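Researcher: Let's run the pair from yesterday's discussion. Sequence first, then tokens, for each.
Model: Starting with the first of the pair.
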Amino acid sequence: MKLEALFDQLHTLPTVPKVAQDLIRQFDDPQTDIDTLAHSIERDPVIAAKVLRLANSARFHGLRDSTSVEDAAMRLGFNTLRTLVLASAMTGAFRAGPGFDLKAFWRHSFEVAGICRLLARQHGLDPETAFTCGMMHNIGELLIQSGAPEYASRINHDTSSAAHAAEETLQLGFGYPEVGAELVRRWQLP
């Protein structure tokens, strides 16, 4: 199978909602302030609800409840907002077939992202960029699961997680890293 054929088999390429795309771009713009982000977040009810819920959680709760997205955004701060928006966009964009543990996939992605953020801080690099890279490090796996389910099922059954990429390359001619790189190119992410 060729990489292009995998993308052709996907009936629709997973998409990040327009509001989330705009927000991701705004986070990369050093001129963006928290008020601008809050107004953009208000355009997506799902993201807005998640922001309010997190701001009112035990971890972030202040003396009073946050009842507006703007107040919640101020309470959470730029980095937490960025993480929440990215996570919401990524987890909502993908579906996997039967036999693939999507919760375990996202749990692993968040663990890797957290480690990437920690390492970046220790080495003086941008921790949020590192977090994003960690979140997306194996995103190609989801596309293989949804675009080539017959191969994915066989690979899932026959191999351990450590040998996954090698087995994908043997069976498909490419592995999840190449698929992920192609998705990033098609989504025009930096």
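Model: Moving on to the second of the pair.
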Amino acid sequence: MDHFNSFIANAGLLEVSFLGDQFTWCNNQAGPKRIWLRLDRLLTNLSGSLAFPNMKLVHKPRILSDHCPLVASFQVPTKLPRSFKFFRQWIQDDDFSSIISRSWASDTEGPPLVKLHKNLMRCKSVFSKLQEQKKDAIHNQILETSLQIQHLEVKLQAESNNDSLSELINAQQLLTSLLTKEEGMLLDKARVKLLAEGDCNTAYFHACIKERRNQMHLNFALPDGSHSDDRDILGPMAVEHFSQILTSDLTSRFLYPLGFEENSRLTSNLLDFIPRLVMNHHNDFLCQPPEWNEIWTAIKNLNPDSAPGPDGFSGHFYVAAIDYIKDDLQSAVIDFFSGGSLPKSVASTTIWGYFSKALNLATCWDMPSLFANWLEKINLSTYFGMVTTSIAALSLWNIWSSRNSAIFAGSSMSWTCIKNQVMKGIQDFSATFNPKSQGSFLNQLRLKSLNIIQIPIDVRHGTWIKWQVPALGTLKLNTDGSSINNACTGGGVVRDHSGEIIMAFSSSFGTGNSAEAEAKAMHLGLRLCTERGLSISSIELDSFLIINCFNAQWDPPWAIEYILRDCKNLITPTVSISHIYREGNGLADRLAAHGHTCQGIAIFDRDSLPSTCFTAYQADLLGQPQYRPP
């Protein structure tokens, strides 16, 4: 068995993971003589595991044989379309100049960075089509030219003449040109292959990082003349040194201005004793937009063989096309240094684009917005929901932070430390947001199995709201407004002491905000009551803004000031206006929502009430309360 295991290791074979029972063989004996073993395995080499990364082995149940059937499943990974890459041989193409000039000849609107990006995208589209047309042309031309050279050499050996020699020289020059183009393409593809293989080719970069760490390694001379790099020794010495400078009596003559006593304390700003080397004219020079000579120098210094940016264009392209793109490129650079906005199409990266498409993520380009949008996605209804929606982000953040510490600070990555940081983040979220419910008993057991201590929740009870009928012999008007995508509508209803509908209405008011919708809905209701001779005794709305402005407690916005003034002229001083929560104003709310489907004003009675409003009407008629959460 040892020889067999050594053979597997020397051959570089890997065992494929399996699903099902852990044993594959049984001797089918009874009692203590029964033996179970795992004799059957599936091995593959490194190329096989890379070609089929999702390879699985399933152990099926045994039926008649002493061995269980083994079923291997191979799932070929999905090939995604390759991203665009600019190949250097396109510069020698006869159509290169015409492609650039046509792409830049089109009129493009927008900021300078957007214009530059759109022109580059037009070039990208044309070059992609050109690559599809000519991807096999160079290879076929090389084969044809090679055969032609062989034929001409045989012909020249049979009969020596100047015409055959001239044809041979021309064919050799053509082959050299084609091989040069192919070499440029292969060099570009080699760079793409390096990116595709990922960590398999990163040993050099890891070696560079280790070398940089060695250069940054600190070795200090101690007061006794010896040297040490022990952190336990150097740490307290550094703390003592800076503590003496910043908090203790000054003992260094360098820090004393003339006239200070050596035993005195520093009474002025320490920065006053540091000479100023960067003057105002230096700052002005640094803040100036770059000139074209600086931009052109930076472009020429681009490594043409380095990996291209997310747009796929390398340094070769910018140098070769500079005569066409100079003006747009200079405007884009100056706009960027002048504080211009960075469009999403320019700031995007290929890797992040893959993640965002795979996970259906919305991209945010400033950290405060990103943080706020992520917090909005946390489910705060239950403690378990908060954990499940935040644990992924907390884990990624702490893994990233720990990885940076390992690379740049030389510390070791510890999964235990990362897990503790994630748990601390969950506890901080719980203390900050205080979820309203513990969730189901099963979810509480799941949290307990993760050793997550749930903070006791402050249980708050909601209230029950219902619409109150008016006094005997009086009428009440309820109105509400709605504004969706700046479309302003409203609705209302007049009911008697029994809750029966006297009149209901819905209307569209054009464009406006929610305050205008509320004010116009109340004004329309009062005007319809006046036209029909209905004398109302009370008005109810769910807008504190309209009520306080109507009662002169707040200054009304100018857009609704004239509307509220006309409302006061339509009622008598005995009419009261009061607030009702939205849950109790359900019928008016449904009528306002129905206004988005109306053209102008629609009047209803009980029998013609819209179907979307009938449930709310029945609830108010029966005195059924509606729950209002805390």
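Researcher: Give me one sentence on the second I can quote.
Model: Residues 2-73 form one domain.
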